[in-house]
User: Fold this.
Amino acid sequence: MSTLDRAGQVGDTGSPIVPDATAARPTPRPRPQASRPRGRTGRVVVGALLVLFTIAFVYPFVWLVSASLKPRSDVFDNRLIPETLTFDNYIEVWNAAPMAAWLLNTAFVTVMATITVTMSSALVAWGFARYRFRGRNLLFGLVLASMMIPGAATMIPTYLIWDSLGMVGTLTPLWAGNVFGTAFYIFLLRQFFLGLPTELFDAAEMDGAGHWRVFWHIALPLTRPALVVVALFEFQAAWTDLMRGLIYLRDREDFTVPRGLKSMLDQFGFGGEWHWELVVTASVITTVPMIVVFFLGQKQIIQGVASTGTKG
Assistant:
């Protein structure tokens, strides 16, 4: 008798006989599980590789710090723990070069470049993401195409523009160009804006909020991770920018840190005086701020990069 036929029968107690639903289901086969030794071995191998790569990346900076704490004769002895520990190099480097002025100049250029490029790129990206107008896709394609133009191709025209404005020899050319945004940052922020719910902006506009208020009070707070990523990327780019310092700066007091390190390398490294302990000490002083900034912003970097590019 089939299962459907038996379902209509009545038992001795007067209740209908209900077929067992689990009897018709096939017994699931147990999934093969990886053995514990193999999983443990894989974790050990991955951990060993991570430690190996960490040592490879950290070793140069540890060597730099160690060399800055050694006297002149022991700089290249390759000992990570100095045989003779001295802090005189950190005093002498301030006397040998205007490090305070270089740090202040670099801080000014970096802050101005970071603020201008973050805000201008966010404004342009918001326009491409929020508003629809004729030729929007073509214009956005031209913005992305500008990333394929090498910087060397625009170096001379840009210099002529700043020279005609009388800005050569000042710090302005090192950051003022960021007022017009950067193609990569515009693309990054546009992708983030496209992932935001448009209902929030429509509701705010229906309540009477203007375009600027929607952008400033709603869009920007929601894109804080992406803004932090852009700011940190530009901070690193401006802090380590040597090329523009070589092109536009003339006076030694106006040098930024990368330009100052280049002058110290020419004077104390390959210039005949051979004071490499001063060069490595200055390098440590200028590297520490970048490490601190990225350590403080690492969570925002991961969150911002992971949440961009999800919608085109």
